[in-house]
Protein: Catalase
Amino acid sequence: MSKSNENLTTSWGAPVGDNQNSMTAGSRGPTLIQDVHLLEKLAHFNRERVPERVVHAKGGGAHGYFEVTNDLTKYTKAKFLSEVGKQTPLFVRFSTVAGELGSADTVRDPRGFSVKFYTEDGNYDLVGNNTPVFFIRDAIKFPDFIHTQKRNPKTHLKNPNAVWDFWSLSPESLHQVTTLMSDRGIPATFRHMHGYGSHTFKWTNADGDGVWIKYHFKTEQGVKNLATDVADRLASENPDYHIEDLYNAIEKGDYPSWKLCVQIMPLEDADTYRFDPFDVTKVWSQKDYPLIEVGRMVLNKNPENYFAEVEQAAFSPGTLVPGIDVSPDKMLQGRLFAYHDAHRYRVGANHQMLPINRPKVEVNNYQRDGQMRFDSNGGGSAYYEPNSLGGPAEAPESKQAAYSVSGVAESVAYDSEDHYTQAGDLYRLLSKEEKMRLVENIVGAMKPVESDDIKLRQIGHFYKADPEYGKRVAEGLGLPIPQEV
Ligand code: HEM
Structure:
């Protein structure tokens, strides 16, 4: 049908006679309302924007593939992991968290690391970050936390008071705050950072046996970060620095790649491990659970169209395939609701039918209708279940693996209140120079906080993680050093 020099048409396909001059009464006008091409053009333009993502609004994406390099079928029946050498197409989106769609790439912020695997059993989304832990560990705190990262509703300005007020009153954030303020808080590019699933997930094999797992994407470009002053300069000189870097690298054939590894924990260890392994503010020791290679991810194709692919992409931690289930992690459980709900609002009820989101396998179900249903809507096939019409049937072998739960139903925190050991371990692991930059970054970020109470409360947390850590931040801020904890 399509020809290279075909006519310009209206959206209803009729040839357009004039796209430069509105229809007017004489050359002076006024403009005639009967110029429906003009009306359509202006009206469509008004509707060009969809809401930006409420978090992770700014990002870049690319297509690629995943190749299995290690046989882990004794742990998972996920078909895309069934054979060494097997390749699965995928789409990745990297992002910053707090800024708007037009914000600068090189700010100090976690980076989103979302992967959509188009597997033969449907899509599998891994929606993680470039950090292994998170600021909070209960979904009920997420909207409040994000309010502090966004603009003050009164002034429309960023608000360091809110940021540090919230963190100092939420000590579970300390591990992630330490990571964020360290060199890794500003990756040099999207290509030079690791990725993490962060949460604990569950793998189940063909016999129904399960294990708990954590995902690690290891960059094959090596980790590189930006010094704060360089990042600040780039933020004004080239706010799209990271998106541009990814695009250019792929255009010139310098395809970025990551090795995917997992940590594997036997199910029963979850009851006896020294902290709750579902708490997303903690990492599992790699001495206890070493990294095991799974495969390799390569990004080798840029999107043809940013809006169609990157902006309309809808990732959700609830987009799972048989062999991969969730864990009781309270953040993850909340996310299972939040993402598909956001997609229905942001992109629409039928967002899963858009080319970027559509699985590469046939979708067979009894869902019908909804705004923008643009396929055949099931045609004349069975539209309810159970039916005796031979409609699509359940696959019982794909049921989520069962696991037992017990407990008293109440609003209650995780058992452990130790927010300090792992944050302190991370501090002690840093070199002298890295510690110096960490403290500098924290002091720089906390200086604009107006309230000494907030600063002192936060210093108390650094002190509890490691007395030297607390003392150095206190010194930098010219505040008293906490004497005791
Ligand atoms: C994006 C909610 C925690 C990583 C989003 C979006 C929402 C959301 C509503 C926008 C989705 C869209 O419009 O497409 C939440 C809630 C959380 C939570 C309620 C806690 C309960 C996390 C955590 C991580 C994470 C712990 C990482 C481990 C991401 C990423 C994106 C995102 C990478 C961008 C996805 C993309 O590239 O399209 N989140 N989030 N979030 N979130 Fe979360």
The first strand starts at residue 59 and ends at 68.
